[in-house]
């Protein structure tokens, strides 16, 4: 087995294993030695396998090997290789069809197995790569986990340290607090002690002082004296008064007077201040009312009636107040009312201002959101439009330039010179000349046309005659061909009607023949147009030119319409075309169209020329 | 600005009369009175000893000359040169002497603050006030001169007595809730008395004229407290400068703090103009600002190298490291002065001694900072307009007004301006006179 494993490539090992299992289960064949190798013939045949295979069956053991194979195949569920024996005696013969079928099936199986194997291999590879990936992921995650764990540990450590620090600091703080407390206590105790000492010392001092006083003062010190030349009068000129109870009372009075004066003064000041403030308050209130009253309607309509009613209440109050306040400014109730009303109004004002602020901010926001966008859109649209216009203008200019160049190059120097100095007068003259030329040509054409018409009339007459002839001939034929029944008569009627109509058509043609006259002109006009366009200068004067052409084209269109179908069929396309073109060209102001019209008409005219008989 | 020739002075005694007409100066034991306009000597008085203190009476009629060593006070009359008056305090000694606002009484404080003797020039009467408190500012008169408040100490308790100045009658006597009263000050309207406690405690009490306690204010505890107090001329604000380097402004209605002005060493607000004195820096003179004040005299500016320049805003001022283990540390707001129109407040933080801060009271914010080269000794507002004069002890005088500031060289070679207050007083009087 082990040897086997080395021979087969690793991808097959599993299969070979299963097979070997099989073989081990199955009964050992006579050539059990080779059995495994035989089985492995279902596996892609390597050279050495081949060699084994060739060694499996020799000339001697064909029967054996066949029987062995049969046995094996039957165990695998294949039909027997031998033909069904008719009798026991008769030797069973090898059924080649069965063998071939078996072979085929085996091959199919082999292919299937190969496919499966491939699939399995790819899957295996995939799984292997997946595995690798997962493993790498796993390792990465592991690393991450490790690092985060380390980090966590670090953080925990730091946290611990900080907590430690914190505790220490707390301890320190506590200590400091204690210290402070202690120091304060010490200070307090020292202060008390100091005070005590001070008091003691002071007492002593006082005693000494007293004693000194007694010593110094009580002994009649002669020295203590005032030596004065003469007494001076008092500053106020009054004489000194004796000290009596009266003076005492007077002094008291005076003192109180002074105090009273001071208080009065202060009160006055306060009153004045109060009055000022009240004035300000009143003014403020008035202004507020005036400010709020125009808005009174709005909030009523807008938000809710509460504010409105409040305002109205306030106004009423204010009205009363203003009257009352005239009577008594400092009345307490009035003051209360006043302050209340002011407060109310202030609240309203505040809310209003807030609302306004909100609105403003909203507007701002909206402005930022919508207006900006709109404006941007507008802007973009506008720019797009403008760009488009510019593009159009550029194109126009380009085409104009191209046309001009074409004209300049294609036509003679006359036109180029004319292009260069496009004076109206010269153009006019030139046009006149051309006009005369054109007229001449027209005359010629008319002459031609007359001849044409005459020919046409002739032709028409001839045609009529021919038609009549044909009709009669057809009638004749019909009469001859069909029996006289009702239907036929109807048919005849129809036909006659049809023929009649044709006649009528012809009649119309006849009647309109004089009008056909311009048709020839129309036919001829593109030619002359082409001639005109040849000398057409790129100047505003082309517009009136266009007008003339449009006139002509109108004529031609009318003619075109009037001409019978058969007659102008070849021309009709061209005519219509020109008609379209001319209508475009006749649009005043649109030079581009005019030019294109010109160019197109030019080409058309060529076509028409070709079409012309 | 004009400068006269230099007068001889001794012990920095030089005072203008309140009406601005006379100038009294002392040389040793002689008192010289001059006319302000002509500077001619009007009177010359000779005292018994070296004069240590002089004071004009409120009506500019008398001058008091105190000779503390001998316990003597001599009074001279301007109207009657031959009139004389000599008060001898005898063995009780003398530590302070002052006029009462009416100009007819003299209050002498004896040694050890045993008593205050009130001598009258009108009558021969003498009054004694016992137990005056030995403190920084123990006597204060109302601006109209009607009442005098006196801090007293009896039995380890502080009291305030209010006297009527016309007859020295005790009007009110009340104890104050203070540990150790340090100062008292009447509001300019004469109706409120501010009483503040020792620097060990931040406490300021406000008493009405009739002795009622109006309010008490204390910003913090357990730290050095109030260092200086100033009323605004309108009596509307009370500025309290404390050792924490802040000025707190109290209002007169609720007596609560309106605002708090800190005095940081670094100034970051770009709105604040910082004037920095620069010496001998012509090349730096580009940013210098020496607007001559509108009413500066015709005298040409001396060729001074000292100029102000506007410092670009993040400015850090020079600070002193206070010695904390000594008494009276150099920290806190030591000087406060409202401009006469109450629009500005000038302050000095003692640990930034070179800088003067000018605050806008209307807007309650810092307006300008002036940084000098040497420590500011004193400043004084012009009584007529918002103009501040600053002395640093050098030979220069610095002037600030909302329009700008300038430095003026005071003539007198090598002679330092003796005492800032005198110069300020001089300026004051000059302004008073010209204005």
TrEMBL record, chain B:
InterPro entries: Centrosome-WD_assoc, WD40/YVTN_repeat-like_dom_sf, WD40_rpt. This is WD repeat containing, antisense to TP73. Gene3D superfamilies: YVTN repeat-like/Quinoprotein amine dehydrogenase. Coiled coil: none annotated. SUPFAM superfamilies: Tricorn protease domain 2. Pfam families: WD40. It comes from Homo sapiens (Human). PANTHER family: WD REPEAT PROTEIN 8-RELATED, WD REPEAT-CONTAINING PROTEIN WRAP73.
